Structures are given as structure tokens and as C-alpha cells.
Amino acid sequence: QVQLAESGGDLVQPGGSLRLSCAASGTIFTINDMGWYRQAPGKQRELVAAITGGGTTNYADSVKGRFTISRDNAKNTVYLQMNSLKPEDTAVYFCNVNVYGRRWENFWGQGTQVTVSS
């Protein structure tokens, strides 16, 4: 089994920055795709950013130029650096990873709250 530990959510003023982390632990031989999703109240969960095992990144149009996804394969960790935060970025942020332990499986983190407000 694999556990995902998220951290970094907080209350921040508009224009501020936050860095989210998601560390995977457990039976892991390799991880390919890692990503961050978010869900605001009353809205569907949406992809924010993703990164492949080879380092290729993909971003939602709404966060391009403000957010940066990265990973540390030695630590099985994915990060989301969020700059120039806006009130519309307020949501619960979830990490998602594809892990090969005994087989390929997809896992979700428990979510971390990001609130952007003055």
C-alpha cells in the first residue's frame, strides 16, 4: 500500500505565495505521472498541473506563468510552487500519483486547503 502525505496549505493574501508538498511512502518501485488537482466549493475537481516521469509538465491555462510543478524522485515527492495567488485559486488541493509497487495503481492525497483572501 502507498500513503501520500500532503502539506503546505494555508491562508494567504492575494499576490502571495505558497509551496505544496506531497510525499509518497510505502511499497514503491517507481512513480511515473504525478499531479496536483483542486476542487473549489460547488465545483468539479480540476487538473492544476502534472509532471511525467521524464519531467514533462502540463498546466491548466488559469495557472500558467504563476504555478510551477516539480518532483524529487529520490524522495518520491511532488511540489507545487504557487505564486501571485488569486482569490479564485482558493480550493482544496489534492495530489495524485501513479505508482508501481506490485502493480500500477493510482493514489490520491487527502487534500490540503488553500485559501486566498485579504
Protein traits:
118 residues; mainly beta; seven-stranded mixed β-sheet; four-stranded antiparallel β-sheet; 0% helix
The secondary structure category is: mainly beta
Distance between the termini: 40 Å
**What general form does the structure show?**
globular
Number of strands: 11
Major pleated sheet? 7 strands, mixed
Task: Tell me the Rg in angstroms.
Answer: 14 Å
Outline of the structure:
By secondary structure, this protein is mainly β. It contains no helices and 11 strands.
Structure characterization notes:
The protein has 118 residues and is mainly beta. The protein has strands at 2-7, 11-12, 18-26, 30-39, 46-51, 57-59, 67-72, 77-82, 91-100, 104-108, 112-116. Strands 2, 4, 5, 6, 9, 10 and 11 form a 7-stranded mixed beta sheet that branches. It is globular, with a radius of gyration of 14 Å. It starts with a strand and ends with a strand. The mean pLDDT is 96.
